[in-house]
Design goal:
Number of helices: 14
CATH class of the largest domain: Alpha Beta
Distance between the termini: 22 Å
CATH architecture of the largest domain: 3-Layer(aba) Sandwich
Number of strands: 15
Structural class: alpha/beta
Order of helices and strands: EHEHEHEHEHEHEHEHEHEHEEEHHEEHH
Number of domains: 2
Largest sheet: 8 strands, mixed
Strand order of the largest sheet: 3-2-1-4-5-6-14-15
CATH superfamily of the largest domain: NAD(P)-binding Rossmann-like Domain
Radius of gyration: 21 Å
């Protein structure tokens, strides 16, 4: 199989879909890998590093899309990239289709087979290809929030850890999953007063056991959100419904009652965001203000630390890339029901039920797609 690795073109996105180590694995298995020139520059990898691993280097991305059997990326294809995809190709990347009807329409029109990292599952029900980026985004959310809280950046002028004689900042994390727990971990490390809201009592028990009283755990209700969000210095939204649009848990009315200069970081923005006032931003212009509250809603947060993020991501994607290359997408998905759960688009059909529901498409199961 010929595997193509184009350079990411989303605004200030420096990650890359494959490292030289991954290239060597595929070449050893007998596959051809073509990498766009400077695709790895953002993580300190040169074209020569990829050549030494056995890749060929191509300056024209159109030629990569034209010749590759499988395209491996990090972020969702931009519309001009969707136009270069064909019904003979496999696309393996993050997609987040429920929040992106234009991309969904373009992928459906292309006829390509698109497998999304974020809906591949594991035996325990987790999302193994989303987990490392959730870890990164969770930790970054506190760094970004702490920076935005500085007065010169529009914030209240609060130091999250406080100092002797001055109370620490109040951090509220909505969602106790991977991203939320990593956000809480960073906030606790800085000395903030941290509260986690979640609707799973067993998960709240786990968190209580981990932090032994250093974090307040609250069952998430509308009343609890009313109380804790409006009293917070920093609110982190870390809610995930796999494949579906995120629920809007913090309303515009909540924002109106928050303190001037408070900060909101919406990790869920890839899936449409869990704050009613959220809208996608980029690393070039990451924040905006609504009713005196600073919003940070960057859709590719891990792209800020591309070296860490790329290695963390490719550590978990490489085995799946190898299986797709070695067996072809049909056999690979037939062998692995968890990889089959990653199938979002095939031959003009939507193959993930939550995406189909949210965007109004007819749903075709992965099993039906494989049978066809």
């Amino acid at each position: 199989m010929k595997v193509g690795v184009p350079r990411e073109i989303k605004t200030l996105e420096f990650r890359v879909g494959m490292t030289p180590a991954g290239v060597l694995e595929l070449v050893t298995d007998g596959h051809d890998v073509v990498v766009e020139s400077n695709a790895g520059a953002g993580i300190g990898m040169t074209d020569d590093d990829y050549r030494k691993a056995g890749a060929s280097i191509e300056k024209d991305p159109a030629k990569i899309f034209e010749s590759a059997d499988m395209i491996v990326k990090v972020k969702e294809p931009q519309l001009n990239e969707c136009a270069m995809l064909s019904d003979q190709q496999v696309l393996f990347t993050y997609l987040h289709l429920a929040a992106d009807p234009k991309q969904t329409e373009a992928l459906v029109k292309s006829g390509t087979t698109a497998i999304a990292y974020e809906t591949v599952t594991a035996n325990d029900g987790s999302l193994p290809l989303l987990t490392p980026m959730s870890e990164v985004a969770g930790r970054l959310s506190i760094q970004a929030g702490a920076f935005a809280l500085q007065k010169a950046n529009g914030g209240r002028g609060v130091l999250l850890g406080g100092v002797p004689g001055v109370a620490p900042g109040k951090v509220v994390v909505i969602g106790g999953g991977v991203a939320g727990l990593n956000a809480a971990d960073m906030a606790v490390g800085l000395g903030a007063e941290v509260t986690i809201l979640d609707r799973s009592v067993p998960r709240l028990r786990e968190i209580e056991n981990i932090y032994a009283g250093r974090v307040s755990t609250i069952y998430s209700t509308k009343q609890a959100i009313d109380h804790y969000v409006t009293d917070a210095d920093l609110v982190v939204g870390a809610v995930l419904v796999a494949g579906a649009a995120a629920p809007k848990l913090v309303t515009a009315e909540h924002v109106k009652h928050m303190r001037d200069g408070a900060v909101m970081v919406d990790i869920s923005i890839d899936q449409g965001g869990c704050f009613e006032t959220s809208r996608p931003t980029t690393h070039a212009d990451p924040t905006y203000v609504v009713d005196g509250v600073v919003h940070y809603c960057v859709t590719n947060m891990p792209g800020a630390v591309p070296r860490t993020s790329t290695f963390a991501l490719t550590n978990v994607t490489l085995p799946f890339v190898k299986n797709l290359a070695n067996y072809g997408w049909r056999d690979a998905l037939s062998r692995d029901r968890h990889l089959a759960n990653g199938l979002n688009v095939h031959a003009g059909h939507i193959n993930h039920e939550a995406v189909a529901h949210d965007l109004g498409y007819n749903y075709q199961s992965a099993a039906d797609a494989l049978a066809a």
